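[job 4471] stage=fold_predict status=RUNNING
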Amino acid sequence: MPRVSDEHLERRRRQIMDAALRCFARKGFHETTLQDVFRESGLSAGAVYRYFKSKDDLVQAISAEEAAPVTAVIESALAQDPVPGADEIAGRMAAAVQELSGPDGLGRVSASAWAQALHDPAVADIVRGAWGPVRSYWITAAQRMRDDGRLPPGADVDAVGAVLFAVGPGFLLQQLILGGPDAAALQRGLRQLLRPEMLSPPDAPALRNEEPGAGLRASTTPPGRETRTAAAGKDTSAARHEGS
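[job 4471] inference complete, writing structure tokens
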């Protein structure tokens, strides 16, 4: 029996992923079934299962593929010395995201997966695995900027990195739902926003949580755990009240 080449295997894997991408873009992640993918790809169930055992496997592969060009942008920026400014890195990343936000683009699958992640721990793990490193890279960039003197010595680099990371998902959702702005407008807006006169004075009231990185750690609680924890607290409080 002739041996199947690596090129053939990769083409078949690509065929399945492209079919899944079209299905996810059309129907959303939640409504798409593997039967949809079988029909869209023109392949049998056995042929698809050879490469992807579940819909989650497909989402993981597509999410990693979408995150790859964004990750490459910030890895390239971190390889420079000094590291480029936040506006330049964000502009480059926005340009990469813009390429993914077309009618059948990978960005639509990401947005659908993020929504599903609020209710599905397995999908939440996939999203964290794909996008958590991007946030970590932003934190590293903020550390480099602090070391270069472009941020104050006591700057909370975890907070800075998290805020800069948030620009990316916000930009993608605007592209998909509201239309625009383009990457150049995002970079221009950041340049104009990140000026001293746009900031509150140092003695202005601040939010309570002043411990560096504390808010970032709190945000890593898996989806659903906050609700369960709150419910448990209410049950305990009610039990104490009944026993008093």
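[job 4471] summary: Residues 121-147 form the longest helix (27 residues).
[job 4471] exit 0
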